[in-house]
Design goal:
Length: 553
Amino acid sequence: MPQVLDVHAVRAWCALALEALGRDREEIDAINVYPVADGDTGTNLYLTVESAVQAVEAVFTGLEPAPPALPDVVHAMAHGALIGARGNSGTILAQLLRGMAQVLAGDAGGEADHSENADGDSLRHALRRAAESAREAVAHPVEGTVLTVADAAADAADAHSGDCGDVARAAYDGARAALDATPGQLAVLGRAGVVDAGGRGLVAVLGALAEALSGDPVAPPAGRGVHHARVTAGHSLDCADGEGPAFEVIYLLEADDRAVARLRTRLDGLGDSLVVVGGDGLWNVHVHVDDAGAAVEAGVEAGRPYRIRITHFAVGDAHTTHPTSGSAPTGERAQRAIVAVVPGEGLAGLYSEAGATVVPERPGEAPGSGELVEAIRRAHAREVVLLPNDAELRHTAAAAAEQARTEGVRVALIPTRSAIQGIAALAVHEKERRFDEDVVAMTSAAGATRYAELAVAERQSWTMAGICQAGDFLGLIDGDVAVIGEEVTRTARTTLDRMLAAGGEMVTLVLGDEVPDEVADRLERHVRETYLAVDTVVYRGGRNSALMLIGVE
């Protein structure tokens, strides 16, 4: 029976791609030398596909028990990848998926609308459109990169007749062969003795497609056996052998096509590695620049930028600096240390007073794995407990922990999802205990702490609690919107009541600078009068902190 690409195959493809990238993430990170040797390509690709998976699952869940139509699923896949795209390779992968979705949904050039499934011809067209659209999105395409691998996959698919399973297998085989050739096409890869990291990730995604359609695992890429050389940071798409720009800037942008065309020209003059993907009013912008502020200002002039992420290509990046470099502390190591990612200056002071080495999380500028490893080195201890305090940092933190272990540090990663959980973990930390016992106690305390955050809605959108309007206050409990309100105190009180309905002994409130003291007074009084034997402690988050964080233990 001919194999077709239907909604269930797309769903399986996304899940298998996430599984494959999770399995290969560290390997891909390790061979990441181009366009910048920052060792995060595997992690960025994983996070991009993770966002696509979440969007696809939301479509299925929202329409159960009836299955969604193919256009709905592929559009969700592409949109999820677009809004969750990380780094250069993640942004290009998002455009590849968008190109495929345009054909599979019948949006590109009058292609037929396959509401139930797509055949081999449609998949061939989709792979070709994907490769073309990715190349169009990159300001200065370079051979020997993921673009070359995507072209080869499309060429191999075009040369092979058959059903979707045959086409996908041919595309995968073509991509594998092209990946093996990348060190001979790009000098920086040849010198390091590695294949292109972005191309390696795309091969994993295409292998997942072939497996989803055939049900049979694919052979691993031949490039898995490459050796890893130590490399230097600063390589860029336009000047691979010189010092590159200092910052990576990424943001989502709401703007029309004409404004984006002007933006491309302006950003191209500011830096390199420029990739702008998307369409229909929503774009993902990626660029490497020395002046991050100018790149953001260009976005403001073009439309409305948000989810701004600025990463500094620090000289001390974990993947580019030798462990024995002069930046490392000298002298006798401490036995144990805590390293924590903390939003806000007030909380940073609180964590520092508790003895933790702090990594600041600035708005739109999440720390990279290199910054976390540098903090672990700075802590200068034989044993380190790492608190990421953000669900989105778990893979970055895992990569940093793995790097630190190669340098002889025993690292335990506690998967804290909020700074509130980190506070609970710190409260039970006892350095005199055995390491394992201390980690278990801290993990238990963090896991027993429910957390919430108050935020302001940026625009009208659908949430688990209903439709919110721009400017509404949102109460997010354990990461999900649970309360929508028009006033901060009432929204916080309702959020607290939801959390305390399941019981609790301690409430922790962390207030941002814009929240007046009387709000905390009202909330403390509400807890005291409504819930017997529940204590409340209040901290100031300081500049760059969330509007309000709430913890219940």
